[in-house]
Every structure is written in structure tokens, then in C-alpha cells.
Amino acid sequence: MKVRLFKPSVGTDELESIQDSFNSAWLGLGPKVIEFERQWSEYIGSKESVGVNSCTAALHLALSAYRFPEGKKVLVPALTFAATAMAALYNRLIPVFVDIDPVTLGISLEDLERKVDKDCVAVMPVHFGGHPVPMDDLVSWAKAHGLKVIEDCAHSAGGLYKGKALGTWGDIGCFSFEEKKCMTTGDGGMISSDDPELLKPLRPARWIGINKDTWERYEDYQLGNPDANSWYYEISDIGYKYNMNDLMASIGLVQLKKLDGMNRRREDILRQYIAGIQDLDYIKPAFPYHLQDSSYWAYMVRVQDRERFITHMKENGVATGVHYLPLPMQPLFMKYASETPVASAVWRELVTLPLFPDLTQEEIEYVNACVHSYMD
Ligand SMILES: Cc1ncc(COP(=O)(O)O)c(C=O)c1O
After folding, report:
1. CATH 3.30.470.20 assigned to 259-373
2. Does residue 156 have its Cβ closer than 6 Å to ligand 1?
3. Does ligand 1 lie within 6 Å of residue 320's CB atom?
4. Backbone phi, then psi, for 78, in 5-degree steps?
5. Assigned CATH for 12-258
6. Sign of CA dihedral 100, 102, 108, 111
7. Measured in angstroms, how far is the CA atom of residue 53 from the centroid of ligand 1?
8. Tell me: the pLDDT tens digits for 33-50?
9. How far is CA 71 from the centre of its chain?
10. How many whole angstroms from 271 Cα to the centroid of ligand 1?
11. In angstroms, rounded to a whole number, what is the distance separating the alpha carbons of residues 243 and 235?
12. Has residue 215 got a pLDDT over 70?
């Protein structure tokens, strides 16, 4: 048997939605993006959202919204995907690597206290693997230090912490709809906030700086607005080609309806996985999975002699992954490295095992059996 690590759960509903865009022959930034932004805001309980083509773009633009002076510092966890810290570099800011909590693997509040200084302007917590950072504590800590909070929710679309959606605790929430994530648009991302004024400049910023996107100009023209000057637009600031398009939004509108169901299915699978390893001493869940209102993107474990375990799983046809080599160990980020001993130790034990809603019962049991046969 072969078991994939991740697999998007897409089918005829998504295809029909794309067909709808084909029929109208409007594939770019258009009405479906606007509708998806509206439905996403409503879903997470946020006032405003801007659709972009990735979470990497979302994090870049979210941080740019504050126009922090060059050389200021941004606190990011040492254990995350490069995009979190890359957002600081894109904005000519300095990433300050913060160690992780040994239990939850999220950014450590103790180390934040050690690393913060007067040049820090923002903190970017990541709900690593989908496990929530304690946002009540983090937000009050950040407020006390005058820091903006940009939540990296790439791993955690649809999850709640203490009954409130992840991505709505901080000043801005950024989401990923890349193909492996909790829901997908192929590639895609979303920026959400309760401060519409803050997000306003991000609309032209995702569209090469143009103050009116093509759909807006078309709408004006169609509505017969006598003042509409359909060719005229202004560019007043730097912008990027970061927009979401209607094909992505077609998929996103359908996936959004399925998101809660997919997250509940992930919880079911994780329950079976965790029950399956509870008696083993050489493998443990990576963090204290809380399987309610959750959005665990990945099934992560801590295992002894990781490379041998990965080889064992591979020989049995089970795909595995490692998330991640801590960023301070990457050549680009080495010069920003500081003491992050927990991240440097813990990542050596981490392995990601298959998790996606369409896993079959047979596959789940097979993965568990392969984990058991590791020490046989
Ligand atoms: C923590 C984290 N942040 C940001 C991103 C970037 O997401 P995207 O692929 O949508 O750009 C990822 C992607 O895996 C991620 O894991």
C-alpha cells in the first residue's frame, strides 16, 4: 500500500464552480474574489478580507500595512516556514528569532520577554501544525509592549481558540489556501482584519498599485455611471501582482462550505492515530492535540531515531515529512540567529505523517500498523 502525506479534497462541486466562471468568461480578479472575501470575513467573524495569491503575499502585505521604518525588528518563531520571516525581509525589517514552547511548539512567551527590545514593532505568532498559540496571553503581552500582532494562520484555517476564530485575535490574520492546507484554492491566501482602513491600501498593493481594479472599472462602465472613465486609473504607491483570481475563488467558495466538515474529519482521524500510539514509548504526539473546534493541518509526532523511522515508513510506502529545519539554521537567516535551544533540539525528533480528510479507514489503520512495526 502507498499512503500520501497530503491530498486536497476536491471534486465535482469545485469543478462545477470553475465551469461557472468559464461560462461567464471572467477568470481574473472579479466578482467571485469579492464574494469569497465577503464570505470568508463572515465565516471567521472579521470586518474585512483581501484575497491574494498566497499566504506568503498575505504576510508581506499585512506587515507593509504599517509602513514601519526600515531596520525595525519583527519577532518570529524559530520553527516556522520561511514565509513568516521572509515577510520581515520583504519589508526591510529585521527578523528576531524567538524560541518555541517545548510543549505546544508555538512561539515561547518566556523567550519573547527575553528577546523584545525598543526596536521591535510587531510579533508574528504561527499556529504551528494547527495548534493554537495562547492568543489571549500573547495579545495582552504584545499590547503592553506596543507591538502589532500579525497571526500566521497558514496551518490553521477554521480553527477556534477559546471560542474565537484564529486569525481574529491579532491585528491582522493571514491564511493559506495552498493545495496541502486545511482548505485549498490551488494556491491562494487571505488577509483579514477588523480594521477596514488598515486593509484599504492593500487592495491596490495586490494589484500593481492601481487604485481601481479591472472589475471595478468594468462594473462602473456596465452601470452606466456617467462619471465612469473606464480606462483611467491612478498608481500612487508601489504594488505587486498578488491578486487572487476568480478561478481560485471558485474553488475557495466551495471549499469554504466544506471546511468545518474537513476539520472535523481531521479530528476523527487524529483521534484514531493518537489512540493507536498511546501505549508506545518511542513515539509521542508532537503537541497536546485538543480535538475540538480545531484546524490541525498536519499529524506531527516526536520520535526517537527519526531518520531510521522515516526509512522504515518509506520502505512500507508511507510518505513522511519534516516541518521544519529551524529558520536560523538556513543560510539566508543565519546572520539573524540567536539562542533558540528548544527549536534546535525538538525539530530533530519531529516527523509529519499522512493527514487529509479523504484518508480511508484502511489507510489510517495501515499507518498505525507501520508505526507499531518500527520497533518490532
Ligand atoms: C507557517 C506558514 N506560513 C506561511 C506559509 C506560506 O503559505 P503559501 O504557500 O500560501 O504562500 C506557509 C506555507 O506552507 C506556512 O507553513
Report:
1. no
2. no
3. no
4. -70, -30
5. 3.40.640.10
6. negative
7. 11
8. 999 999 999 999 999 999
9. 25
10. 25
11. 16
12. yes
